Amino acid sequence: MASKRRWFQIHLSTAAVLSLVAGLFFWMNSAPRTDENSTIAWHGWPTPFWFVWKFADQYPKSSGPVMNSDFGIIRMNELQLFGVVYDLFALAIILLLTAYVCERLVRRRRPTP
Q1: Is the pTM of the predicted complex or chain greater than 0.70?
Q2: Residue in 60, 14, 24 with CA at minimum distance from that of residue 40
């Protein structure tokens, strides 16, 4: 009699792909992004969660840590909670979809006994 597959079991190839996707997502969130004409850089994908000045000498002394930009009114050098939660939610969805697609591809190739 064939043993029943546990519901949370994944293949090694799926785990390797999930590791690569998680590493790519971590890199996309940690690499600073900026526009050519902007004086700020931001971290986070798909939603920015950390804003910093491109160069320390560009910090306008009069404006303080609050700045009005294309993202709305932002606080510099502070963690934006909405961006963190949204990015973690996006990571979870991307990883679940990746695992589902990889498992479907692996199981489609193997006939069940």
Answers
A1: yes
A2: 60
Residues 76 and 50: beta-carbon distance below 8 Å: no
Note whether 48 and 42 are within 8 A (CB).
yes
Could you read off the pLDDT tens digit of each residue along the chain, which spans 113 residues? 556 666 778 889 999 999 999 999 999 998 888 877 777 788 888 888 887 776 655 555 545 566 666 666 666 667 788 889 999 999 999 999 999 999 999 888 766 55
Rounded to whole angstroms, how far apart are CA atoms 85 and 27? Answer: 17
Element (H, E) at 96: helix 81-109
- Which residue's entry shows tokens 């950390």? 50
User: Which tokens is 88 given?
Assistant: 């973690």
Cα–Cα distance between 111 and 113 in angstroms, integer?
6
